[in-house]
Each structure stands twice: as structure tokens, then as C-alpha cells.
Specification:
The complex is a heterodimer.
Chain A lengths: L4 H6 L1 H33 L4 H15 L3 H14 L6 H27 L2 H9 L4 H31 L11 H12 L2 H29 L6 H12 L1
Chain B lengths: L5 H39 L4 H16 L2 H14 L6 H26 L4 H8 L4 H16 L1 H14 L11 H12 L2 H34 L1
Helix pairs in contact in B: 1-4, 1-7, 1-8, 1-9, 2-4, 3-4, 4-7, 5-6, 7-9, 8-9
The chains are: A mainly alpha, B mainly alpha.
Chain lengths: 232, 219
């Protein structure tokens, strides 16, 4: 068995475009997922059951079924119900849904990590529920939410490889194309693994930087100062 | 929308049989993964720098690359190295190599929860090091990591759907076969999703029970 660099250099453009596609798909799904995760998390914490129950059901369904099966359901079942689906659209939808649900669990956990007494105190000083949420809970929540969110973004990137099964043109698909034309397993495997590894390492590094930037208000004194500032 | 559920009556026995294979493959994988995790944890504390470097590289690669790629590597690349494995075995190996890296992190977390004084106390009684690990430390660690271990098992159960790609006839592959026969894809996919849901939901309930036990034990 020999390892020839030419397999990698000759097919570099295929790998590169697959890599770019994976980055774009994951970026879009992360943004969409984050956007939808906050309402899902808040609905789950709602006091009214018609908000809480549907959100909980959605989260449980997504968490308790394999991502691959979700992809198949979106790709094969939705068209049968009259919703046209291309493989790329199905892939993006599945990945965004996955992101929204898993991110919402981190955000819900982070909201619950903020001591409840602080919201009570804010309400007692006359702040509205939504103002207390915006000024007291959300700023503190970030510190708690970022570490698990980082792991979930990395999970999302890794699970995006599954989309190649419905022929979404991303990195794993590109890798399979190279594999099919060159029959050079080791080279292609090493290349695709290194590319994914670089991407996840870059995200991990970026998240650790971001974590350092977010302030964590943990002391009562700071919370009181924050309250006073919000009161003005 | 026209869903015709009579096709499900026909498909259900096959799907349940597939679900059994799914359970089989994932429980074997979590047990082997536990073994890999223990070995990795021990190797991480080895005196030999080279061994530590290898283990850290293994963890980094497993955690940094998609499981799907890892499954393909075990199935397609290992035969090129002269190691030809049947589907079931290579599926179990791919899953357990993957979960071993994560389980070793759990074990490390569990170890930090056990006071170092217990080892000293055992030593004071004249217990040899190996015995105190076997009798005192490991049983407690295993008890503590039982809840995250069931979470890992649930994760593997879902991940084993990927083994359909290498042709292992578990639940997802069975669904594809049934669809090939009946040509009724929506009903079969929804039923398949429901079977996975029930299995994972039950495991989730068990996890919550175990968490209660473990937290009562921790005090």
C-alpha cells in the first residue's frame, strides 16, 4: 500500500468545493437554528400549556429519533404530502431543525441557571416580565449557554456528513465522488478526515475565544448594579 | 395527503425484527465502548509519553470527525490493510471506537467526584493499589457514570441508523428494504421513526430514574 499525494492534489478542487459547501450549509443551519431555538426554549418555560406542550413534543421527537431518519422523513414524507423538496432543501431543513432543537435545550438550561430570585427581584422593583428577561436573564444566560452551544455546533457540523446519503453536494459527497473515480481509499479518507477535523477545531477555538469575551455576572452586587442601571 | 396505513401491518413485524438488531448492535457497542474507555483512561495516565500522545490523538480524531466517516473508514479502509470484517462486526467496532473516546471523558469526570482520601485510607489498611482500584474506586465510578452511560447508549442507538449505509440490516435498512418491496415510503418512514422514538423515550425515562439514584448516592 502506498500513499500518493497526487490523488489529493488532482482532486483538490472537488474537495475544496465540498468543504466550502459544508461550511455554508452549517453556517446557514446554525444561524437559522439559533433564531428558532430561543422561541422554542421560551415556549418550553411558558406557564401556559398550549405553548409548553407543543414545544416539548417537538423537542422530544427530534431528540429521540436518529438524524438520518429525520432526513428521510423530510426528504420522502413531506413530498408525499404535497411539499416539494430538493435534496439540498431537505438537507438544510433537517439540519436547521436539528440545530433549533438542540440549541434550544442549551438555552433553556442556561435560562434556568440564572437564579430565579433575580427575576422575582426585578418584578418586585416594577420591571415587566419581558424587560426582566431582556435585561437580567439574557445577558447572564450567554455565559452559561456558550460552552454547550459550541459543542452542539461541532455536533451539527459532524452530523452534516449524513446529508450525503440523500446526495446533498457537501464534503462527504465530494469525498465519495473522489473515492468512486480514483479507488484510492486511504488518501481520500485522510483528506476528508483532516478537513472535518480542521473545521471542528477552528469552531472549538472560536468558541473558546467567544467564551472569554462574554461577561459572567455572578455576584449579587453586580446583579444589583445591573438592576439599578436597568431602572434608569 | 394519502397515507395508507394497511401497509404498516405488513411492515411492522419486519421493522420490529430490525429494531432488535439495532438494540443488539448498540448494546454491544456501548459495552465494548466502556472497555475502550477504561483502557483509554488508564493509558492517558501512563508514564510513556508516546502512549499518551497516541491516546490524545485518537480522542482528538474521534471527536473531531463525523461518525459517518469513521464508519466508512472501518468498513472500507480496514480491508485495504488486510483486515476484512463482516458488516455486523465492523459496525460494532466503529461505534465502540467512537463512543470509547466519549466514555473515557465520562470516566475522568466520575473519577474527580471520588475523594482521593479513599485511596489513601485503603493504602493505610494495607490494601494493594490494584485491589483498592477494583474494590473501591471503580465500582463507585461505574455507578456514578451509569446515567451518562445510558445517554451514550441512547446516542449509539440513534447513531446505529448510519450502519444501514454499510448494509447492516438493522431498523433503518429494514425500512429501506420494505419500501423497496411495497413502494410505500411515507408510512414506513413514519413507523420507523416511531419505533426509534419509543426506544429512545423509554431509555430517557430510565436515565432520569438513574440520575435520581446517583444524585441521592452522591449526597
Amino acid at each position: 500500500m502506498s500513499f500518493s499525494m497526487s490523488v489529493i492534489t488532482d482532486n483538490w478542487s472537488i474537495f475544496a468545493s465540498g468543504f466550502v459547501a459544508t461550511v455554508i450549509f452549517c453556517a446557514i443551519s446554525t444561524v437559522l437554528g439559533l433564531l428558532f431555538s430561543v422561541p422554542i426554549a421560551l415556549s418550553q418555560l411558558s406557564r401556559t400549556w398550549w405553548w409548553r406542550v407543543p414545544a416539548r413534543v417537538l423537542v422530544e421527537i427530534v431528540r429521540d429519533t436518529p438524524f438520518l431518519v429525520q432526513v428521510f422523513v423530510i426528504y420522502f414524507v413531506l413530498p408525499a404530502m404535497g411539499v416539494p423538496m430538493s435534496s439540498t432543501a431537505a438537507g438544510l431543513l433537517a439540519l436547521s431543525l436539528y440545530g433549533a432543537v438542540y440549541f434550544s435545550e442549551s438555552i433553556r438550561g442556561a435560562i434556568l441557571s440564572v437564579p430565579k430570585g433575580q427575576v422575582d427581584a426585578a418584578r418586585a422593583t416594577g420591571m415587566s416580565q419581558s424587560l426582566a428577561l431582556r435585561k437580567i436573564v439574557f445577558p447572564q444566560m450567554l455565559g452559561y449557554a456558550l460552552p454547550p452551544l459550541g459543542n452542539q455546533v461541532i455536533g451539527l457540523i459532524k452530523d452534516s456528513a449524513v446529508l450525503s446519503i440523500i446526495a446533498v453536494p457537501e464534503l462527504t459527497m465530494a469525498f465519495q465522488n473522489v473515492l468512486g473515480t480514483t479507488f484510492a481509499a486511504p488518501e481520500a479518507f485522510v483528506t476528508v478526515a483532516v478537513l472535518y477535523w480542521m473545521l471542528t477545531a477552528a469552531v472549538a477555538f472560536g468558541m473558546s475565544r467567544l467564551e472569554r469575551l462574554t461577561p459572567t455576572y455572578r455576584s449579587t452586587r453586580q446583579a444589583v448594579l445591573l438592576l439599578a442601571a436597568a431602572d434608569r | 395527503m394519502g397515507l395508507e396505513w394497511q401497509y404498516v401491518d405488513h411492515a411492522l413485524p419486519f421493522l420490529l425484527k430490525g429494531a432488535l438488531v439495532t438494540l443488539e448492535v448498540s448494546s454491544l457497542a456501548v459495552l465494548l465502548g466502556l472497555l475502550v474507555g477504561i483502557v483509554v483512561t488508564v493509558a492517558r495516565q501512563s508514564r510513556f509519553k508516546a502512549l499518551r500522545a497516541v491516546v490524545l490523538a485518537y480522542i482528538s480524531v474521534v471527536r473531531g470527525t463525523p461518525l459517518f466517516i469513521q464508519i466508512l473508514i472501518v468498513y472500507y479502509a480496514l480491508p485495504a490493510l488486510g483486515l476484512d470484517l463482516p458488516r455486523f462486526e465492523s459496525g460494532v467496532i466503529a461505534l465502540s471506537l467512537n463512543s470509547g473516546a466519549y466514555i473515557s471523558e465520562m470516566i475522568r469526570g466520575g473519577l474527580t467526584a471520588i475523594p482521593r482520601g479513599q485511596l489513601d485510607a485503603a493504602k493505610a489498611f494495607g490494601m494493594p493499589n490494584g485491589l483498592s482500584w477494583r474494590r473501591i474506586i471503580l465500582p463507585q465510578v461505574l455507578f456514578l457514570i451509569l446515567p451518562p452511560l445510558t445517554v451514550e447508549f441512547t446516542g449509539l442507538l440513534k447513531a446505529s441508523a448510519l450502519l444501514s449505509v454499510i448494509g447492516l440490516v438493522e431498523l433503518t435498512r429494514t425500512a429501506q428494504r420494505v419500501i423497496g418491496e411495497t413502494l410505500r415510503s411515507p408510512e414506513v418512514w413514519l413507523t420507523t421513526a416511531a419505533i426509534y422514538f419509543v426506544m429512545c423515550f423509554v431509555l430517557g425515562a430510565i436515565t432520569r430514574r438513574l440520575e435520581k439514584f446517583a444524585s441521592a448516592y452522591r449526597v
